[in-house]
Design brief:
The chain has 213 residues and is an alpha+beta fold. About 3% of the residues have low confidence. It binds zinc ion (ZN) (2 copies).
Amino acid sequence: MTARLDHRNPLVFDTHELGRRPGALQRLTRTVDAPKDLGIPKVVGVPEGAPLELELRLESVMEGVLVTGTGRARAEGECVRCLEPLQLDVEADFQEMFSYPDADDRGRAHRAEPGDDAEDDEDRLFLEDGLFDLEPVLRDAVVLALPMQPVCQEDCPGLCAECGVRLADDPDHHHDAVDIRWAALQGLADSLEPGDKDDKSGAEPGVDEKQEK
Ligand SMILES: [Zn+2]
Ligand SMILES: [Zn+2]
């Protein structure tokens, strides 16, 4: 279904050195160029080619290789409130099991829980010739680690709704027109108050109760 893994791809790791003896451990660090689309599309992400530091711990277990690690990089995006460009350091932790293809049945027996075997199976990742591709795992972890609504500063006041100026640059900024709008909204709210004359045709709770008894 997928093309064979290429060991020259910097996000492909080789487990041959680790071996298959359960309990064997290997630690790796590697700095790679970030792959493209690493982040939340159109919101915030690590630019393609930016340095991405990886720290990995590979552990040989019965059914495969358990990979635990952290990716660190600098993401770029823009503030959702004031639209200023921003940068933030992202640290993404991940843990994933890469199963031996021949350990399929045993793995399934261990992890079988009612109702989730089909889903589980699809999500499982396998070693291919002793190699695994970290990219999908890393991608999920980075997306989870990034804020869905990045802000340039915690209390960014955003943009003036009236003229679009960045309020953080001009805290005392205001327009009188805003007050007029508020007054108009207030008037609208008053006219929507419950208890209007139209409601009399409907049943009032108190009346209903009397009729039923
Ligand atoms: Zn902002
Ligand atoms: Zn304004």
